[in-house]
Specification:
The protein is an all-alpha fold. About 50% of the residues lie in helices and about 0% in strands. It is rod-shaped, with a radius of gyration of 18 Å.
């Protein structure tokens, strides 16, 4: 099935999940469900490429902060 603009519902679902491109062959965060957009916004630095610290580094920071 397709919507009135000719885009299949399967393609729209893939776009919303972040697995596809929009009809202009571009990928945009606004295509994602709001919950996924919120996760990106809460972890913007990591989404933009900042490495996620190793578990040991996180534990060390928690211990230092609680001292």
């Amino acid at each position: 099935m397709k919507d009135k603009s000719g885009v299949s519902h399967a393609r729209k679902a893939m776009i919303r999940c972040g697995l596809g491109l929009d009809p202009d062959d571009e990928w945009q965060e606004s295509q994602l469900f709001p919950e996924l957009q919120m996760i990106i916004n809460n972890h913007r630095a990591h989404f933009d490429g900042t490495p996620v610290p190793e578990e040991a580094e996180v534990i060390e920071e928690i211990v230092q902060d609680s001292s």
